[in-house]
Write a structure and sequence with these properties.
alpha+beta, Purple Acid Phosphatase, chain A, domain 2, Immunoglobulin-like, 2 domains, 24 strands, globular, disordered N terminus, binds fe (ii) ion, signal, metal ion binding, PAPs-like, TAT_signal
């Protein structure tokens, strides 16, 4: 079921004013010029990074009971990470593993703590401190309303920072960034580090809680962009291979209520073949999940690039392989929403089946303008597009029982779009 913007405003108590923090009447808070510049660079300070300069949280398995802490910096041998429950007793301690971060003297430090209580706030300490960091586990069930943010194509400029600040104000349970994080191209440690520093600095919510980061691979994480080897994702995989251990695609299950299926649009793994076979199995197992999201970097339904291949270029169109191999599976196996980026616009498609508008179809939200921008093609020129805008943005996903609200917020805090989905699409109609 599709919910109109008006219905959304009606059904959400208090409307958007209470649902989303759009700058608290102080738009200057989110203006690019008000945002602080990125911190340290490799060249400026290769050895004096403190863990808190790059500390971010992520997940390797169920976010209701685990957390993974990571930071980049000089080797901290024999470090431990302690997680302190609200009662203050029974600290959980995890050993920190570390390994080189390529092309630098820095190390990636990683510690995973398991066996946590769902829906609980904790404190986290590295070694003997001095700082204590706050975080929370995901709720056990989707009975409570909660929200998270998504986007893609960030970079390290002032717009990316402004959207970080705006995203953090929404108190999201996590952020999903689907490709083109810092634009390191697999070659610039300085850029990759700046992205992580910005994230560590700004993706902290108003209550002081760190916002865990989930990502998938984009072309700008990989040397050459496409058809690379794992080693070509020079800086990305050493940070995210906790989830992408053997493959550059993965599924992350949040209890039994939410799944994110994270795909690789040909940067390291080919779209057709093994990845598609894996995808079919993964979606079949999850088709009744109350909230089933897929995300990938290159869009099946682009808002800027050309979807059809050209006889002159001899190259396939943008998203052609997605549409051939993946979209039929999305339609058949209960995928609620696809999040895709790479084109640097705001876009929302109609619900689509076989590329055509269909009320039982799958909507595609994107198109990657957290910190990068292009002018989209007019929606009238591409019948699959429902809404487009040239706007830096990220999207807040608010889950309320069976209802999902997807609110695209522009960098200024202005609401660019509100879209709602509800319940499951009828399965196996494809
Ligand atoms: Fe991009
Ligand atoms: Fe891209």
């Amino acid at each position: 079921m599709t919910i109109s913007r008006r219905a959304f405003l009606r059904t959400t108590a208090g409307g958007l004013a209470t649902a989303f923090v759009t700058g608290s009447g102080s738009p200057q808070d989110t203006k690019p010029e008000a945002a602080p510049p990125p911190r340290l660079s490799v060249e400026a300070a290769p050895t004096n990074l403190l863990p808190q300069d790059t500390l971010f949280l992520t997940w390797q398995r169920d976010p209701t009971t685990t957390i993974t802490a990571q930071w980049i910096g000089p080797e901290k041998a024999d470090a431990t990470v302690r997680v302190i429950p609200p009662t203050g007793d029974e600290w959980k301690t995890a050993k920190v593993e570390f390994r080189p971060w390529p092309k630098t003297d820095l190390k990636v430090h990683r510690a995973e703590v398991t066996g946590l209580a769902p829906g609980t706030e904790y404190l986290l300490q590295i070694g003997k401190g001095p700082e204590l960091f706050r975080f929370r586990t995901m709720p056990a069930k989707a009975t409570d309303t909660f929200q998270w943010v998504s986007g893609g194509d960030c970079g390290t400029n002032a717009h990316a920072i402004a959207n970080n600040i705006l995203a953090a104000k929404q108190e999201p349970h996590f952020a999903l960034i689907s490709g083109d994080l810092g634009y390191d191209n697999g070659t610039s440690a300085k850029t990759a580090l700046a992205f992580v520093q910005n994230y560590a600095r700004h993706m902290v919510d108003p209550k002081g809680r760190l916002i865990p980061l989930v990502t998938c691979l984009g072309n700008h994480e990989v040397r050459g962009g496409y058809n690379g080897k794992r080693g070509d994702a020079t800086f990305y995989l050493p940070l995210f291979d906790g989830l992408y251990k053997d493959t550059t695609y993965a599924a992350l299950d949040f209890g039994d209520y939410l799944s994110l299926v994270l795909l690789d649009t040909g940067h390291v793994a080919k779209i057709a073949g093994e990845q598609t076979d894996w995808l079919e199995g993964v979606l079949k197992e999850r088709e009744d999940r109350p909230h089933l999201f897929v995300t990938n970097h290159v869009p099946a339904y682009p808002s800027y690039r050309v979807p059809e291949g050209g006889p002159v270029s001899g190259k396939p169109g943008t998203g052609e392989a997605n549409r051939q191999h993946w979209c039929p599976l999305f339609e058949r196996h209960g995928v609620d929403v696809v999040l895709e980026h790479h084109d640097h616009t705001f876009k929302r498609t109609h619900p689509l089946k076989g590329g055509l508008r269909d009320k039982y179809g799958v909507p595609y939200l994107g198109d990657g303008s957290w910190g990068q921008l292009r002018a989209p093609i007019a929606a009238e020129k591409r019948p699959y597009l429902a809404a487009v805008a040239k706007a830096y943005h990220m999207t807040v996903h608010r889950l309320e029982g069976e209802a999902r609200y997807h609110v695209a917020l522009e960098e200024s805090g202005r609401v660019a779009d509100v879209y709602g989905t509800h319940g499951k699409r009828p399965a196996k109609r494809g």
